[in-house]
Design goal:
Elements lengths: L1 E6 L2 E4 L4 E9 L3 E10 L6 E6 L5 E3 L7 E6 L4 E6 L8 E10 L6 E5 L3 E6 L1
Parallel strand pairs: 2-11
Antiparallel strand pairs: 1-3, 3-8, 4-5, 4-9, 5-6, 7-8, 9-10, 9-11
Length: 121
């Protein structure tokens, strides 16, 4: 069993900041890429940011310069620091991790339950 627990969402005014966290627990041998995605009402889920185990990052153009993804490998946790938030950032944010549960095991993707971020104008 693998569990992803997200926290940190909420309501914030435009220009404000929030920090999301996603802690991974359960039977884990190794965690590879970790990432954040979001889905706004009536829209498809989209990539926000990803980070490799070594710390290489990738961002959607819409969040570059405003959001920062980071991870703590010792805590099996990924973070998303969001600044200069805009109303169009309103969405449910999901974390996704790619991991192995045992040595030589296959790599699978796991998703968090989602956390709501609402930015008021």
């Amino acid at each position: 069993q693998v569990h992803l627990v997200e926290s940190g969402g909420g309501l914030v005014q435009a220009g404000g900041s929030l920090r999301l966290s996603c802690a991974v627990s359960g039977i884990i041998f190794s965690i590879g890429n970790m990432g954040w995605y979001r889905q706004a009402p009536g829209k498809q889920r989209e990539l926000v940011a990803t980070i490799t185990r070594g710390g290489s990052t990738n961002y959607a153009d819409s969040v570059k310069g405003r959001f920062t993804i980071s991870r703590d490998n010792a805590k099996n946790t990924v973070y998303l620091q969001m600044s200069s938030l805009k109303p169009e950032d309103t969405a449910v944010y999901y974390c996704k991790v790619n991991l192995q549960q045992r040595v030589m095991g296959i790599w699978n993707d796991y998703w968090g339950q989602g956390t709501q971020v609402t930015v008021s104008s």
